[in-house]
């Protein structure tokens, strides 16, 4: 079993790598920061928010394949009033969160780097169900990724590859901590280890979508039943409490 | 410019954008962007040549053209320009994906970002032209993704800008415009079912009057046009 994980150095990515390794798999782990390799872990360094870096990485990914499990996990947020975040941050965010997973998926398909029976997982966000005032471009990037995943699912299935899209709520990571509004409670966020286990299990059960944990399931249902009210509530509990701009 | 409110339309030189410009011409000062030479536009419209596949440059060009023309407020910013390629997931290369996202999503984000102060000044509204494909399309995955991105942007920005700047997204159904040919899609006999750019612009203009936050133009509009004897 060989897995490919992006954003592998911290948070959910690191938890996924750990679980793949401890179940006896090999992992090609991509991150901006250099990882300690060795054994069944092959680290690749690349800045996935930079097109040239991605272009240089693609042949190395193909060379290190084929893969049985791919998780497009790398992502970044940008929180604060829409106008106050610099355009360069939006460009990097959209490249990292949306464009690179799409470019990488197309390349993995074209080069035949996905084994028959492989799982490809896209990490979107609960904001797909709820909206996210105070992180409008982040929300846009995750909506785009979710709909890309949905669009390619049928064609991937013909090749024996199964696509799962994950819509996590808040996760207890350093990244989430930076972007959380004032007074948000860290103990309500899901542990990366717990989320990683749920994701791997859902993909293996060939679930199309996963809203992990009660918070995400409630957010999903609220977004379905009352989309506008839910987004207005998100404004109240997040946007109006943001006390800083983080990107 | 004179006392009329100003509307800016990206991709205002062909298809739905041009047809919309013709409808707004009477009551608005128009600023139209496009990649061509600006021939055949409504008289008095200010044409700005800008290539949205290079979003950063295009935004810069548009902002400085507005400054030169003395436009300091906008009543409507209509982000209509779009591109797409008809290809399944494994047939899309990096260049195609990047171009589609740049024109449809990145340029829209950066344009809205840069021109938000003008919209606020003009108590205006951001109008995003989405697509019925925003829920997913196996034959145009990155196009569908880009339009889903716009949908998400509209939803969150609308809540964020509540009471300051309006946000509306309109999803046109299939329309006879130059985009299909450029996308490499031949609809064949299906084309009879498509809206003309004029009919679609009628519907978009009508929806813009209502200020509904989001709307899809497809079956309802076709039936209403049939009943009222207007051409589709």
Summarize the entry for a quick read.
The complex is a heterodimer of chains A (247) and B (232). Chain A has helices at residues 11-22, 51-64, 87-110, 127-130, 136-158, 174-179, 192-204, 213-225, 227-237; strands at 2-6, 26-31, 41-45, 67-72, 114-123, 162-166, 209-210. With 247 residues, chain A is an alpha/beta fold.
CATH topology-level name of chain B: Rossmann fold
The CATH homologous superfamily of chain A = NAD(P)-binding Rossmann-like Domain
Rg estimate of chain A, integer Å: 17 Å
- Spatial strand sequence of the major β-sheet of chain B: 3-2-1-4-5-6-9
Number of strand segments of chain A: 7
Name the chain pair whose interface involves the most residues.
A-B, 53 and 48 residues
Described by its quaternary structure, the protein is heterodimer
- Which percent range describes the beta-strand content of chain B? 15-25%
What is the CATH first-level class name of chain A? Alpha Beta
Query: Which architecture of chain A would the CATH scheme give at its second level?
Result: 3-Layer(aba) Sandwich
Kindly give the count of domains of chain B: 1
Provide the residue-averaged pLDDT of chain B: 92
Keywords (chain A): Oxidoreductase
Protein name (chain A): SDR family NAD(P)-dependent oxidoreductase
Family (chain A): Belongs to the short-chain dehydrogenases/reductases (SDR) family.
Organism (chain B): Hoeflea poritis
Describe the structure.
- The complex is a heterodimer of chains A (247) and B (232).
- In chain A, helix 2 (51-64) runs parallel beside helix 3 (87-110) and helix 8 (213-225) packs across helix 9 (227-237).
- Chain A is 49% helix and 16% strand.
- A seven-stranded parallel sheet of chain A has the order 3-2-1-4-5-6-7, sandwiched between helices.
- In chain A, helix 3 links the parallel strand 4 and strand 5.
- With 247 residues, chain A is α/β, with parallel strands linked by helices.
- In chain B, the strands form two sheets. Chain B has a seven-stranded parallel sheet, with helices on both faces.
- Chain B has a single domain, classed as NAD(P)-binding Rossmann-like Domain (Rossmann fold, 3-Layer(aba) Sandwich), CATH 3.40.50.720.
- In chain B, helix 2 (55-68) packs parallel to helix 3.
- Chain B is α/β, with parallel strands linked by helices and 232 residues long.
- Chains A and B meet through helix 2, helix 3, helix 5 and helix 9 of A and helix 2, helix 3 and helix 4 of B.
């Amino acid at each position: 079993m060989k897995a490919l994980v992006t954003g592998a150095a911290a948070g959910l990515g690191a938890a996924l790598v750990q679980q793949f390794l401890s179940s006896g798999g090999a992992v090609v782990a991509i991150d901006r920061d250099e990882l300690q390799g060795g054994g069944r872990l092959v680290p690749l360094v690349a800045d996935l928010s930079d097109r040239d870096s991605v272009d240089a990485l693609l042949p190395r990914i193909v060379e290190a394949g084929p893969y049985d499990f791919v998780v497009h996990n790398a992502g970044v947020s940008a929180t604060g009033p829409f106008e106050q975040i610099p355009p360069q941050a939006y460009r990097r965010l959209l490249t990292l969160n949306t464009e690179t997973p799409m470019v990488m998926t197309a390349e993995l398909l074209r080069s035949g780097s996905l084994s028959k029976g492989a799982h490809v997982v896209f990490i979107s966000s609960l904001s797909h169900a709820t909206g996210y005032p105070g992180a409008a471009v982040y929300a846009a990037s995750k909506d785009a990724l979710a709909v890309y995943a949905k669009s390619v699912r049928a064609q991937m299935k013909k090749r024996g590859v199964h696509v799962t899209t994950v819509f996590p709520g808040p996760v207890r990571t350093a990244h989430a901590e930076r972007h959380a509004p004032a007074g948000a409670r860290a103990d309500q966020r899901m542990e990366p280890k717990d989320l990683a286990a749920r994701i791997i299990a859902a993909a293996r059960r060939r679930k199309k979508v996963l809203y992990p944990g009660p918070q995400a399931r409630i957010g999903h249902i609220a977004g379905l039943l009352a989309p506008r009210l839910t987004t207005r509530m998100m404004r109240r509990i997040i946007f109006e409490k943001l006390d800083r701009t983080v990107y | 410019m004179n006392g009329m409110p100003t509307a800016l339309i990206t991709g205002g030189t062909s298809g739905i954008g041009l047809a919309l410009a013709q409808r707004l011409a009477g009551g608005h000062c128009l600023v139209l962007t496009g990649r061509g030479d600006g021939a055949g536009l409504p008289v008095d419209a200010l044409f700005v040549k800008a290539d949205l596949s290079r979003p950063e440059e295009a935004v810069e060009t548009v902002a400085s053209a507005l400054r030169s023309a003395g436009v300091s407020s906008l009543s409507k910013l209509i982000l209509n320009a779009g591109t797409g390629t008809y290809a399944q997931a494994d047939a899309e290369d990096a260049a195609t994906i990047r171009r589609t996202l740049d024109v449809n999503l990145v340029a829209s984000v950066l344009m809205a970002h840069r021109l938000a102060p003008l919209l606020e000044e003009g108590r205006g509204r951001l109008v995003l032209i989405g697509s019925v494909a925003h829920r997913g399309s196996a034959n145009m995955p990155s196009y569908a993704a880009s339009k889903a991105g716009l949908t998400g942007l509209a939803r969150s920005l609308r809540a964020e800008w509540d009471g300051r700047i309006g946000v509306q997204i309109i999803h046109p159904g299939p329309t006879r415009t130059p985009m299909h040919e450029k996308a490499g899609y031949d609809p064949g006999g299906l084309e009879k079912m498509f809206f003309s750019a004029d009919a679609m612009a009628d519907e978009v203009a009508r929806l813009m009057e209502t200020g509904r936050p989001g709307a899809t133009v497809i079956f309802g509009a076709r039936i209403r046009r049939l009943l009222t004897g207007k051409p589709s």
